[in-house]
Write a structure and sequence with these properties.
The chain is mainly α. It is built from two helices and no strands. It has helices spanning 4-73, 82-147. It starts with a helix and ends in a 6-residue tail after the last helix.
């Protein structure tokens, strides 16, 4: 027959082990959530870059139109050759370069956000594993402590 103190000690150890396991499950769930959030943030980053690139291209079209209007008003031929064409090409090249940089920058930020999300997931999984080991250790310790006094009865 078990002593009441032994029963209480084992029950406390079981409760402690259960708490450790639940804490590990929570940590893993949080890591999964953080990874999902990072993926959403990375997608938003890429989408914002596409919008920014589109705005850059639209601004370039307006700039080319304004430049052509200014050239035409000053008497320069804007039929698609010579100075007018050179100015338009420069504006479009610069705009395309800026748009590409916006997209490449967002791709880089997106990769870093996804990497952090993956690290959060791995961390949560590791904490879950550690909680199981801690729970097993708690139970073994309680069993060991309970077994030390068996000869005294």
């Amino acid at each position: 027959m078990c002593e009441p103190t032994a029963i209480v000690m084992l029950a406390g150890a079981a409760l402690g082990a259960y708490g450790q396991i639940q804490q590990g499950k929570q940590a893993e769930a949080m890591g999964d959530y953080q990874q999902q959030q990072a993926m959403a943030d990375a997608n938003a980053e890429r989408g914002a870059a596409e919008v920014e690139a589109d705005l850059i291209r639209k601004a370039a079209r307006r700039q080319v139109s304004a430049a052509n209007a200014a050239l035409a008003a000053s008497g320069v031929e804007v039929s698609g050759e010579g100075t007018a064409l050179d100015i338009s090409k420069d504006i479009y090249e610069s705009a395309n370069r800026d748009a590409a940089m916006a997209i490449y920058g967002a791709a880089d930020r997106s990769r870093r956000i996804n990497a952090q999300g993956e690290a959060d997931k791995i961390s949560g999984e590791a904490m879950n594993t550690a909680s199981k080991i801690g729970a097993a250790s708690t139970l073994l310790q309680a069993a060991s402590n309970n077994g030390k006094g068996w000869k005294k009865q």
